[in-house]
Structures are given as structure tokens and as C-alpha cells.
Amino acid sequence: MDGDQARSPDRTEIDAGKLWAGGVATAIVAALVAIVGLLVARGVLDIAVLVARSEGAWHTASTASYAAGAAVGALVATALMHVLALTTPRPTLFFGWILFLVGVVVAVWPFTTGAALDEQIATAVLDAIIVVAVWSLVDGTARRTTDVSGR
Q1: Which domain holds residue 51?
Q2: What was the pLDDT predicted at 54?
Q3: Is residue 7 part of a domain?
Q4: The total number of structural domains that make up the chain
Q5: pLDDT tens, 9-30?
Q6: How sure is the predictor about 58, in pLDDT bands with cuts at 50, 70 and 90?
Q7: Distance between first and last Cα of the chain
Q8: For 80-90, how does the pLDDT look when each residue is reduced to its tens digit (9 = 90+)?
Q9: Does residue 126 lie within any of the structural domains?
Q10: Residue 138 is assigned to a structural domain of this protein
């Protein structure tokens, strides 16, 4: 029996090195999106961007921690995609739904605070843009680095 016949029809082949290289590149892009967004919000529009603090308190985001959080989020998304590609029948579909819901959460969450409306909007928009960037880049990378046999 040759290799093609021995494979399960639902088995996913993953080029993990390329997937994770794309994940690292996505982390860099996410961090840069966060930095650019903070520059525009603070420097151009003079609006604070918020981050959650412990016990429900919110404070103004620091550039380094916001960019690092975006980068870590991209790496977590890459790990999620890797796990989904190994375990689910339609990994990009499930990944899309998960990232869509994460985007909704981060866009709605600022409106649960007592912050000024302009700060809520700026935070929601920037967070949503970061999620969309991560979603599109990780999804695109996964589509190029995984092959689902039997599709």
C-alpha cells in the first residue's frame, strides 16, 4: 500500500514550521498595528485607549504592553489554529467563528466601562482591527500550510 492509500481521508497534513513562521510574522504585524493605532488615537486624535486591569478597573494602555499583548494574542491564535488543524474536520471554519466571537468580545467590552465614549470607541475599534488582522493572517497562513486529504 502506498502512502496515499495508507492515509486516513480526514487526516490533515501540516507544515508546522511554515505555520509558526507565519504566526511569528503575524505577531509582529499585530504589535505594529497596536503601535500605529495608539499613535493615531493618542497622538492625532488625543483619545486614550484603555486596557482592563484587575478587579474590573480600566486604565490607559501603555504602548509596550499593548503591543506585547497583541503579539501574544497572535501567537495564541496560531496555537489555536494548529490544534484545530490537527483535531477538527474544518479548522478554518471553527477558527473563523472563534476569532469572530473574540472580536465581538473585545469590541463590546470597552462599552461596559464608565470611560468617556470617545475612549470606548477608540479602544473597541483598535481591538477589533487587531483581531481582524490576526484572523486574516493566521487563516491565510493556515490555508497555505495545511492540506486536508480527502477534500
Answers
A1: 14-146
A2: 57
A3: no
A4: 1
A5: 555 688 889 999 999 999 999 9
A6: low
A7: 21
A8: 999 999 999 99
A9: yes
A10: yes
Give the Cα separation of 134 and 138 in Å (integer).
6
Q: How far apart are CA 136 and CA 116, in angstroms?
A: 30
Select from 4, 35, 21 the least CA-distant residue to 145: 21
State the Cα–Cα distance between residues 30 and 130, nearest whole angstrom.
Answer: 6
Grid cell in block for residue 88: 477538527
C-alpha span between 25 and 96 (Å, rounded): 19
SS3 148: strand
Q: Find how far residue 108's CA is from the centre of its chain.
A: 16
Is 111 within a domain?
yes
Residue 150 CB neighbour total at 10 angstroms: 10
Q: What is the mean pLDDT of the chain?
A: 86
Ramachandran angles phi, psi of 47, nearest 5°: -125, 130
DSSP string, 47-84: ---EEE-GGG-EEEPPHHHHHHHHHHHHHHHHHHHHHH
Q: Could you tell me which residues come within 8 angstroms of residue 89 by beta carbon, excluding any fewer than 6 positions away?
A: 10
